[in-house]
Design a protein that fits this description.
The protein is α+β, with helices and mostly antiparallel strands. It has four domains: 3-94, Transcription Factor, Stat-4 (Orthogonal Bundle), CATH 1.10.532; 100-278, Glutathione S-transferase Yfyf (Class Pi), Chain A, domain 2, CATH 1.20.1050.20; 280-376 and 385-449, STAT transcription factor, DNA-binding domain (Immunoglobulin-like); 463-706, SH2 domain (SHC Adaptor Protein). Helix content is 47%, strand content 15%. The strands form six sheets. Strands 1, 3, 5, 7 and 8 form a five-stranded antiparallel β-sheet that branches. A hairpin with a 2-residue loop joins strand 9 and strand 10. The relative contact order is 0.05.
Length: 707
Amino acid sequence: MSQWEKLKQLDTKYLEQLDILYQDENFPMDVREYLAHWIETQDWEKAITNYSMATIHYQNLLDLINEQYSRFMQEKLFICQHKFKRYRQNMQAVMGQPQPVDFERHQNVVQKLNALKNAVQAGEKELKFLEEQQDEFDFKFKTYKFQESNNSEKQKAEELQVLQKMLNILDCNRKDVLQKFAAFIKEAEVLLNTLVKEELADWKRRQQNACIGAPVKVCLDHLEDWFTACAVCLFQVKRLLKKLEELGDKVTYDKDPFKIERPTLEKHVKTLLTNLIKSAFVVENQPCMAPQSKMPLVLKTSSQFSVKPRLLVKLPEVANHLMKVKACIDKSSPNGKGYRKFNILGTNEKAMNMTDSKFGGLCVDFRHLQLKEQKSVIGGKGSNETSLVVTEELHLISFETELVYQDLILKLETSSLPVVVISNASQLLSGWASVVWYNMLCSDVQNMTFFSNPPTALWSQLSETLSWQFSSNTKRHLDTDQLDMLAEKLFGPQENYADCYITWAKFSKENLPRQNFSFWLWLQGILDLIKKYFENIWNDGLIIGFVSKKRERKLLKHMQSGTFLLRFSESSKDGGITFTWVEHLPNGEYKIRSVEPYTKGHLTNIPLSEIVRFYKVMAEENVPEHPLLYLYPNIPKDEAFGKYYLDSDADVQLKHNKYLRTRLIVVSERPSTEIPPAMIEEGLVDDLPMLSATCFDYLGFSQLSTT
């Protein structure tokens, strides 16, 4: 009997604990159930320390989940099939392991920490031996002094000779101990440089990427463990050096190394501790308004936002000390004319504690802060005479506290990533564009004048960031073909876009050719349309979405009649989606048909799946026919969209016509004139005419509305 079967036979109270254990779907109970035999036969202990084995286990697990998914498909167990598909997606996103280089780097940090711990422990043992040696010398020296008047000159000389030998040995041992202390203090310095200049810097860069949608982990637990372990070692070294000072006070002599060298080492350790603790004060959760959790760092005046600083040195004595953290804004902002200034409202001073952290870290969670713009003395409230628009102004929210521990008194300060402050919801997308551009290209959090001369971006940088916008808001990123279409839209047809540059203005400020909106607003309109109206269809990969008309024709012309694809409109500011299909005629020619885009107004009343399901074209003698038969490349329409169909008339009633017992369909008239295929093939026609669609009552074909 497997371990899993035995667990299932436990008493109810234990089963409840088991249920709690599997509440997090990072590793679902269903997976544990179906893959029990394989899971229980693997060497997981070895995988913890062996990256190659861990990678193999991880990939095998995904493959087994995929196999189970395939079995469910064959057995037509739709719900189980749906679950296991989601499990695989979640595991790929949440359980992604560090790359080999990261794993090796982390192992290097752990090895350095262990070496430092062992060195400090060895130093402590040697110090105890030195103390015993000194006590013996001290005792004999005091005995000699006490009996000095009663001893002969010869005895005095012999005893002094013995004492001198003991002192010489003691002096050598003192120098040796100090050398060893100096060596592991140097090791601590190397480790500290690794933690601050490599690991913490890497985390900060990953956090910047995560803020703009990158699927990366920004958990601080490893860093907190490493910073804490390093601090513990340094504080222990500091105490040992203090012990050396006490030994030097008891027994000293000419050129005593404890008097000459020890103070320098103590100063060095104090400097390292200061740098460590100051670096360990970070912003764990960047400023974010609750309704805009996918758009952090854009703050609206008079709207509440949250932010959480954290101290990565977790010492019980520090936790018990009351550390008040104060939040402020723009302590050293640019002094440009018209640069807006703000006050922070709400409880902007709170004490650090461990209750605000899920894992017991020392942090403070500011949850209800607000910004209010200061009235300008010249120009009145809201005056902005700088060359920057409001959404290009960058502001810093900083945090101050004081740490008192042993004889250390440290002023700690950290700051958020630059934030954009808006006063109207209409500025949100422009503000988010600034946040994306800044964090994509700049790692200097003090660069408040970044947009005075914003750098250009390589398409290889921007394309990845654009894909993150979709993967962070949905469960699907943009593939190479989709990104190529966007590149072509920005740069025109080229063979390779990787080295193409795009300016900040072209990205978010200048209108697209023949349009009255920018590339960024167009893209955000599409993303908003996906989120509100057909996210599941997008997640399942049924929408090609970003495809040029030229490629669209290339994909469809050799497909069987009725093959169609879904793509996004290039002319709708707020997002639109259309479908295009191919018809093959008896004479061997083909026709490419498209329907005018469906926008929010249409999709609010009729789900996209229902539009596809019932769409008709009026053929000869006004007989309607279904032109959409196969989703590209050859998936039967009902197989692709069937699970999204609404089952009853009641489900498809219009919200504004809830008493009308009908189903809505969309019907198009065939065009009276046709464009010859040869002209299309030769590229003589850029835009094919789109069929206008009319929405009808399905039962009586009475016209309800026209698009």
